[in-house]
Write a structure and sequence with these properties.
Largest sheet of chain B: 2 strands, antiparallel
Largest interface: A-B, 26 and 23 residues
Number of helices of chain B: 4
Structural class of chain B: mainly alpha
Oligomer: heterodimer
Distance between the termini of chain B: 68 Å
Order of helices and strands of chain B: EEHHHH
Shape of chain B: elongated
Order of helices and strands of chain A: HHHH
Strand content of chain A: under 5%
Number of domains of chain B: 2
Structural class of chain A: mainly alpha
Radius of gyration of chain B: 28 Å
């Protein structure tokens, strides 16, 4: 029984890994277009969801390019590099830009969303690949 | 552990607690058969990936890294490092997102 639950979990994780980038990308563009067209959105979607999507999208693009450049389809970026990129985004969007541009506002929840995005990317890419290699 | 009887699909012999038929050596354990098939497919896939030639960008950098001139060698090593490429792309995307959102 436990084995079948584990298998279903692996299958779901496998499909999530395949679709999360296009899904996040399309949803982020949709949210941006709705904000641009002044269509009212729930506060949490309007303020924080795109911050959650940002890091997985950026890291996925970086990973795709690095795999192409190195001709290695299973290459994974080092975890400290993921942390550096996420911290860089936090500093740029939540500290530097709000100081230099009135359009931006600093928000501590956004920092949490960036790191949640990083955690999501880590689970999708690192844990799924490790499971595939093990099996 | 309880006894497992398996009938061979090839010769019809009934086998007790065996993965392979005692008569014709055909595999009779379905779970093992599937596992072996999965391993075979995975091995073939990995062999196919390894047999693939690296793209021109990889070849260019691999040659540049082994260049006799130390300046070219170090420059190639710098630009071929994962950290430099990822930080460059990440910075570019941050600027792009910042520009679009403003």
């Amino acid at each position: 029984m436990q084995k079948s639950i584990y298998n279903y979990g692996s299958v779901i994780l496998h499909y999530l890994q395949k679709i999360y980038f296009p899904l996040f990308f399309i949803m982020a563009i949709l949210i941006y277009m709705m904000q641009y067209s002044d269509i009212p959105l729930p506060l949490i979607i309007n303020n924080h969801v795109n911050d959650f999507f940002c890091i997985p999208i950026v890291l996925f693009i970086c990973q795709y390019v690095i795999r192409y450049v190195k001709s290695n389809r299973q290459l994974l970026m080092p975890v400290p590099l993921l942390l550096v990129i996420t911290s860089m985004y936090c500093i740029y969007f939540e500290y530097y830009l709000p100081k230099s541009n009135k359009r931006y506002t600093a928000d501590s929840i956004d920092i949490v969303m960036y790191f949640l995005g990083l955690f999501y990317f880590y689970v999708m890419e690192y844990i799924t690949i490790k499971k595939t290699i093990r099996s | 552990m309880s006894d497992v009887y398996r009938k061979c699909q090839n010769c019809g012999t009934v086998n007790l607690n065996r993965d392979y038929c005692k008569q014709c050596s055909e595999i009779i354990n379905t779970t093992l058969k599937r596992k072996l098939e999965r391993e075979k497919v995975a091995a073939a896939k990995e062999k196919h990936i390894r047999a693939k030639k690296p793209n021109p960008i990889t070849l260019f950098f691999q040659n540049a890294i082994q260049h006799s001139n130390i300046f070219i060698r170090l420059t190639a090593k710098f630009f071929y490092s994962i950290w430099v490429i990822v930080i460059a792309i990440g910075s570019f995307l941050a600027l792009l997102f910042g520009y679009i959102a403003a």
